[in-house]
Amino acid sequence: MYLRSITFLKNKISKENYFLSSIPALKGLETLSFRGNVTFFVGENGTGKSTLLEAIAYNCGFNVSGGGRNNKYEVDSSSAALGDFIKLSWSPKVTTGFFLRAETFYSFASYLDRLAEDDPKNTYKPYGGRSLHKQSHGESFLALFTNRFGIKGIYLLDEPEAALSPTRQLSFLRIMKELEKEAQFIIATHSPIISAYPGAQILNFDASPVAEINYEDTSHYLLTKGFLENRSLFLRRLFE
User: Fold this and answer.
1) What is the DSSP code (8-state) at residue 74?
2) CA gap 120, 127 in Å, rounded
3) How many structural domains compose the chain?
4) Within a domain: residue 9?
5) Could you tell me if residue 23 is inside a domain?
6) Residue 34 included in any domain
């Protein structure tokens, strides 16, 4: 494990930068500690998972549009509003890794294609040897995980399940297992398959402040389990 904890620099918050206190999951939180190589951020949309993940990426020196330290491009939706208000504690510090934003992955693939105009072999080598645009969405994600994630580092993933079928989500778990001894993963997810990774720390952003939660107590697990066990009742109540 490399990233040990996050400290929230509340003394830097002003009336103009009030967003930290406006996120219930982070309000009142002074530190957030990680206890293993795999951590999941779970919770409803808008609870601060992506905001914190982007802030970590910013402090790691990764491109907050998605990518690593040397990927230079921008998209309109990228930001790191919380980035200057947290401090990361490392043991030891690593400078390698990657930040995956599912919503901007298309732009990242296009950025690689522009680089490949000058040097296609070396540009595509860390991504399976060919353009990510020439693979299906799910194939391109797995090509990234299999090839680009093969080095020691920290990997920040925002909703990796967006492009992965249930079968491919299981494939992703196997990739994580192969890399876990060398890599640290922090993943924001809604997937009850991905968050089932054995021994993972799960942080619940539906709580105020964020708190660790057991897998079987997460809303994603409970809702999915309930739906699969009594689909007719769920649908009847939904459509009444």
Assistant:
1) -
2) 11
3) 1
4) yes
5) yes
6) yes
Residue 87 belongs to domain with CATH number = 3.40.50.300
pLDDT, averaged in runs of 10, over the chain (240 residues): 90 62 82 95 94 92 80 58 88 88 78 84 83 83 82 91 93 93 94 97 96 97 95 92
The model's pTM = 0.89
Domain that holds residue 20: 3-105+152-239
Tell me the C-alpha distance between 49 and 112, whole Å. Answer: 27
User: 128 in a domain, yes or no?
Assistant: no
Half-sphere CA count of 34, side-chain side, radius 13 A: 24
Type of residue at 70: N
- Kindly calculate the radius of gyration of the chain based on its CA atoms and give it in whole angstroms: 18
